[in-house]
Design a protein that fits this description.
heterodimer; A: 537 residues; alpha/beta; Rossmann fold; six-stranded mixed beta sheet; 18 strands; B: 273 residues
Chain lengths: 537, 273
């Protein structure tokens, strides 16, 4: 199945969204020849997504030159010399959020959706559906429900839906940002198969550009309001503009953070005979296996469940210790988030026990799920995967004050001012939290939790989909917290986060959990010296 | 011969095994295209509101209860799904018993409420009627797949594709919003503001839910548009819908229940138009 690949041409193109003063993107001159594969990188706010949406013909609002508040456009963007809106089937768009762009409730129907819209006859539609699913390697029955698919499967489903429309150009807007490592590989391989099959052109935007370097011919660096500042073979651009790329928030391959780079050294000096150099025995070989750090939370035979009838995980043993970072990893859908919410005292354990150590419980019961909201907020803070779930106030300033105020702190204003500065949010103090950018929301969410100064902080995917700069800000913040004695639990699939924070790691599997590093987290119950965490007689 | 003709089952080509969409179509009552019960229940409803007597409603309800086991719905599910109807029935009956048009022997009179033979009969007739319409309306749609219903509405009843598919996408989003709501609740507990002020908290959660729903809807609209939804030109439908024997039988049974109940009421002389 070969289709004519499309040519995409931007000529001095720019776009300003309705009711905005600043141009989202401006002065872009870029031509993608038929069959060419181009990756676009640039800092947050450089208008990369806007560019891709323009190619797909799905920018909101029609520009209106007579209305100041309406969207404005300058220059032109053409697909095969035509307006993108007029040739929608020629451009296949796959976006970041796998959840949000599944249209139909059955796999086959979802792939067929685009063909139906294009008026493809029924018989041919199903032939296309079958071959598209085959190409992306999604071997599922056509009537399988789309609700239970993993992130990687969903993105491949979206690719199949696009492929079935026989696009001339494939447009990918951070398709791997929310995926676990195996999902990233699945999507990468599916895209390669799709390109091999159709020979179509490719435009891809991704912060972690390393994923796509083996597939692209050109790398383009975009600057906010500056248009294209670098354009060439990926190796050349990386070599010439490496620092500029890193500064722009791009994950340049080979510049990944070092082990423990976000921590202020080891808190305990290496024991005699355990040289810092002997890392071959595991990154923690030189660290005394932390039995001195007080246990704040201890899970034994813990089973987790979403709601009453959906058991998710079982047989999980772990300790959360002060001043340590515990990373909960494992494939998508294995119950990492559910475990996080259970450790955070927000879901009741379905089996086994979760007990708070004496240092954490501090005179109240030792079952976090039974604490009142106020008792919980002062002890365990939770940063949700979607920051918008946890905003309750009208301004950033009020948002930061919610926690301390609920706990009756005396120095609310001082704490808030300190956090506004520390998180670089001072200029947004009076803005509504819902209007912030993704990175700002993420920082605010962490700030609101830190404001209550809980000894334990649980975070769900704190770095997913972040550019390098926001990532660094978040990880540095978490490193400082751990260094000052806070216990951090991070549910994550981000290897860089695990490495930079020098985290102990628990890998969730189908049957219970395995400690990969920091075996101390799996000590048997009898080892717990803290009386509060011992099993009742 | 075009592929289109082949799919329409024209002669000259061996029929493909199963429907062209490769799915296995459910048999029996479950395989009936949902538009059939929709039309049938509407017709039954019309039959039952023509009169306000006890006999016609009781006959209809009796017939329905006789046929109900054919649907093979677990009793628990049935009770759960019909619970709104079951709650509404006694409330309706009570209010009509108290405030219905008085006639016949008077049982008691409190001035504002007057219970008589006439109002009691009317209350019973109304309660049975609500049950007789509500029961099939719920039971026949317990297992309906929204996609099948949407296909039927668009291809059989010719409702606009934009409207039908938009509604279908909205239904799918409802489950996501349910998850959002739970997350919002947990987040408020985590932040220390869930101990008091239930109303205020509910309002803030509702606002956040609205924002999230708009975000999701916008993304979904972009996803649908990027795949050519709403483009000019004829839209095809990948799934075939049929309105054949089983569908006519479904409509026939439901209309039959209405006709029999009217006939019995007229025969018994209780019919009141």
């Amino acid at each position: 199945m070969t289709v004519a690949a499309a040519r995409v041409t931007f000529s001095d193109w720019g776009w300003r969204y309705a009711e905005r003063d600043a141009w989202a993107v401006r002065g872009v001159d870029l031509t993608v020849e038929p069959g060419e594969r181009v990756a676009i990188v640039g800092p947050s706010g450089a208008g990369k997504s806007t560019l891709l949406r323009a190619v797909a013909g799905v920018l909101p609002d029609e520009p209106d030159a007579t209305d100041d508040t309406a969207a404005s456009v300058q220059g032109s963007v053409l697909v095969d010399g035509a307006e993108p809106r007029a040739v929608r089937g020629r451009v296949g768009l796959v976006m970041q959020d796998p959840e949000a762009h599944t249209v139909m409730s059955r796999v086959g129907d979802d792939v067929a959706f685009g063909c139906e819209n294009a008026g493809v006859p029924r018989e041919e539609t199903w032939q296309r559906v079958r071959s598209a699913l085959d190409v992306v390697g999604l071997d599922l029955p056509l009537d399988r429900s789309t609700t239970m698919l993993s992130g990687g499967q969903r993105q491949r489903l979206a690719l199949a839906g696009v492929l079935a429309m026989r696009p001339g150009v494939l447009v990918l807007d951070e398709p791997c940002a929310n995926l676990d490592p195996s999902g990233v590989v699945q999507v990468h391989d599916a895209v390669r198969a799709l390109l091999d099959e159709t020979g179509c052109s490719l435009l891809v935007v991704e912060h972690r550009i390393g994923t796509w370097l083996d597939l692209v011919d050109r790398l383009v660096l975009l600057e906010p309001a500056g248009g294209v500042v670098a354009d060439g073979a990926p190796a050349d651009v990386l070599a010439e503009h490496g620092p500029a790329l890193t500064a722009a928030g791009v994950w340049v391959p080979g510049s990944e953070p070092e082990q423990g780079s976000a921590r202020r050294g080891t808190r305990t000096p290496p024991r005699a005979g355990e040289m810092l150099g002997t890392v071959r025995g595991g990154p923690h070989a030189f660290r005394p296996l932390g039995d001195r750090d007080p246990v704040l939370l201890a899970a034994r035979g813990l089973g987790t469940a979403r709601g009453r009838r959906q058991p998710v995980g079982s047989g999980i043993d772990l300790d959360v210790r002060a001043g340590r970072v515990l990373a909960v990893t494992g494939p998508n859908g294995i119950g990492k988030s559910t475990l996080g919410l259970t450790l955070a005292g927000l879901l009741r354990p379905a089996a086994g026990t979760l007990r708070a150590g004496a240092a954490l419980a501090d005179g109240i019961g030792d079952a976090p799920a039974a604490w009142t909201s106020r008792q919980l907020a002062g002890r365990i803070g939770t940063v949700f995967q979607d920051p918008e779930h946890q905003f309750v106030a009208r301004t950033v300033r009020e948002e930061l004050a919610v926690g301390p105020r609920a706990l009756g702190s005396a120095d609310v204003d001082a704490r808030v001012d300190e956090l506004l500065d520390a998180f670089g949010l001072a200029h947004l103090a009076d803005a509504n939290p819902f209007t912030l950018s993704g990175g700002e929301q993420r920082r605010l969410a962490i700030g609101t939790v830190i404001a209550s100064r809980p000894p334990v902080v649980v975070l769900d995917e704190p770095t997913s989909g972040q550019d390098r700069a926001t990532w660094q800000a978040v990880v540095d913040r978490l490193g400082e917290l751990a260094d000052s004695g806070t216990a951090i639990v991070a549910v994550t699939h981000d290897r860089d986060l695990v490495r930079a924070l020098d985290a102990d790691e628990i890998v969730l599997g189908a049957t219970g959990a395995t400690g990969v590093t920091g075996a101390s987290t799996l000590g048997p119950v009898a080892d717990l010296r803290d009386p509060a965490t011992e099993v009742q007689p | 011969m075009t592929a289109h003709q082949a799919a329409a089952g024209l002669p000259g080509r061996a029929a493909p095994p199963g429907p062209p969409d490769g799915t296995t179509r459910a048999r029996g009552v479950r395989g009936v295209q949902p538009v059939a019960p929709l039309l049938g229940v509407l017709a039954l409803g019309v039959c039952l509101v023509l009169s306000l007597d006890v006999v016609s409603a009781a006959v209809a309800l009796g017939l329905e209860l006789l046929l109900l086991p054919l649907l093979r719905i677990p009793p628990r599910t049935l009770l759960l799904r019909t619970s709104p109807v079951l709650v509404a029935v006694p409330l309706t009956a009570l209010s009509i018993a108290l405030y219905g048009r008085p006639s016949g022997r008077s049982w008691f009179d409190l001035g504002f409420a007057h219970v008589t033979d006439g109002s009691l009969a009317l209350a019973l007739a109304t309660a049975l009627r609500v049950l007789a319409i509500g029961l099939p309306a719920v039971a026949l749609f317990v297992r309906v797949d929204p996609t099948d219903l949407a296909d039927g509405l668009a291809q059989l009843l010719r409702l606009p594709a934009r409207f039908v598919l938009g509604a279908l996408a909205a239904i799918r989003m409802m489950t996501l919003l349910g998850d959002d709501w739970r997350q919002l609740g947990m987040a408020r507990r985590a932040r220390g503001v869930a101990d008091t002020g239930r109303l205020r908290r509910g309002a803030s959660m509702a606002f956040a839910l609205l924002v999230l729903a708009l975000r999701r809807a916008t993304t979904l609209a972009v996803a649908m548009e990027s795949r050519g939804f709403g483009a000019p030109g004829r839209r095809t439908w990948a799934r075939s819908v049929r309105f054949a024997g089983p569908e006519w039988a479904m409509v026939g049974v439901l209309v039959g229940i209405g006709v029999v109940s009217i006939a019995v009421a007229v025969g018994a002389g209780t019919w009141r138009a």
